[in-house]
Specification:
Helix content is 0%, strand content 23%. The strands form 2 sheets. A 10-stranded parallel beta sheet has the order 1-3-5-7-9-11-13-15-17-19, with no helix packed on it. A 10-stranded parallel beta sheet has the order 2-4-6-8-10-12-14-16-18-20, with no helix packed on it. The protein has strands spanning 4-5, 11-12, 19-20, 26-27, 34-35, 43-44, 51-52, 60-61, 68-69, 77-78, 85-86, 94-95, 102-103, 111-112, 119-120, 128-129, 136-137, 145-146, 153-154, 162-163. It is elongated. The protein has no helices and 20 strands. It starts with a strand and ends in an 8-residue tail after the last strand. It has 171 residues and is mainly beta.
Length: 171
């Protein structure tokens, strides 16, 4: 039931089996949450099995279950939900919530609002995917907007595209 505060000036407010290895990092509570080394100034609010990997300054997971911010994604944010993932090398990426949403590597400054099973592919920065179900923005599709709906897709190399919603639409 013990917590481990190994990072310099790190704080764990409560809960069980939480580990804060990053300097100045904070885990407010929950169970089995982890902030890895060199994830300084990062925060996990609570929940279970949430993880901020190393080399992530100022990253934040507010709560939820099994959410991950991977290595070198400083200032990334996950609000909550279930098994959401911001992959490595995604500075300033945001997932507000939902279930199993993913921002793949090198898609900096991307916003994914919620829903479930939505994906922004590799090397696709400055995108907005508001929500919905099984929607995706493809590789090298910079600055695209996908509003929502179900099974909609903005494909690869579709720069500055917009798809507002509906079902089974493709650009």
């Amino acid at each position: 039931m013990s917590n481990s505060e190994i990072g310099a000036w790190s704080v764990i407010g409560g809960g069980s089996y939480n580990m804060a290895f990053g300097s100045y990092s904070t885990i407010s509570g929950g169970i089995l949450n982890e902030i890895q080394t060199n994830a300084s100034y990062s925060t996990i609010g609570g929940g279970k099995y949430n993880r901020i990997d190393s080399d992530n300054w100022y990253a934040c997971i507010l709560g939820g279950f099994s959410n991950t911010i991977a290595t070198d994604s400083s200032e990334a944010y996950i609000g909550g939900g279930l098994r959401n993932s911001i992959s490595e090398t995604n500075q300033y990426a945001i997932i507000v919530g939902g279930e199993r949403n993913t921002i793949e590597p090198e898609s900096d400054h991307t916003f994914l609002g919620g829903g479930n099973y939505n994906r922004v592919a590799r090397i696709a920065p400055y995108n907005v995917l508001v929500g919905g179900n099984q929607n995706s923005i493809g590789t090298n599709s910079d600055a695209a907007v996908l509003g929502g709906g179900s099974r909609n897709q903005i494909g690869n190399d579709a720069f500055y595209s917009s798809l507002l919603g509906g079902i089974d639409n493709t650009i």
